[in-house]
Amino acid sequence: MPETRIVTFTTDFGLQDPFVGIMHGVVLNIEAEVRIVDISHAVRSFDILDGALTIAQAYRYFPPRTVHLIVVDPGVGSERRPIVAETEDYVFVAPDNGLLTLIESREPRFTVRHVTAERYFLQPVSQTFHGRDIFSPVAGWLAKGVAPADLGPEITDYSRLPIAGVERNGQGEPVHCRKRTSSFFSRQTNSQNSRNPMLCILTPV
């Protein structure tokens, strides 16, 4: 029996418009047997750091060979690259803007490819909806069994967020760190334990 792959979605699109549903449909048109899971569509608009934290907190709770699609893309329509990243257990599809920085910091194996194989895109490609025309079809083809190596060349100059080590004050409390409020937990801050990624950045927030 063929393996049923999982594709997760993490975006800043919200749910008031049909964009998330459209992306689901693109994936299902390519691989109808896929299982789709929405991690979150409430990432702060165009906030790459918030998107990086969201996926870093969630991805390890999924079975191996899950395809994680993340779209927080203030550079849509520009020259920023679409990328696919592989770890030991997972594949990630995202714009090349630092969204995967926290994942790289936690994974012993992290290989990134620039997606250049346009035959795997939905044509014509819009200047404003790469989630539909590039990222979703690439995720669908990965779920169908296309190897990441078939999508484009390996690169090492991909974007990373400027994340520093955790600086603490005299009371041992983290300083200069983004605090993230959620509707369930009172707050989420930086931590180096296995379940909470660091979130200290070099620039003021």
Explain this structure to me?
With 205 residues, the chain is of the alpha/beta class. It has helices at 19-30, 48-58, 101-106, 130-144; strands at residues 6-11, 35-40, 67-71, 82-86, 91-95, 111-114, 154-155. The longest helix has 15 residues, at 130-144. The chain is globular and about 55 Å long. The chain has 4 helices and 7 strands, in the order βαβαβββαβαβ. The chain starts with 5 loop residues before the first strand and ends in a 50-residue tail after the last strand. Helix content is 21%, strand content 16%. Strand 4 and strand 5 (91-95) form a beta hairpin.
List SSEs in N-to-C order.
EHEHEEEHEHE
The tally of beta strands, per DSSP, is: 7
Instruction: Give the CA-CA distance, first to last residue.
Output: 50 Å
> Strands across the major sheet, in which order?
2-1-3-5-4-6-7
Number of helices: 4
Poorly predicted segments:
184-198, 200-205
Tell me roughly what share of residues is in helical segments: 10-25%
Q: Biggest β-sheet, characterized?
A: 7 strands, mixed
What is the general shape?
globular
What is the rounded Rg?
A: 17 Å
Sheet-strand content, in percent, reads 15-25%
Structural class: alpha/beta
Mean pLDDT score: 85
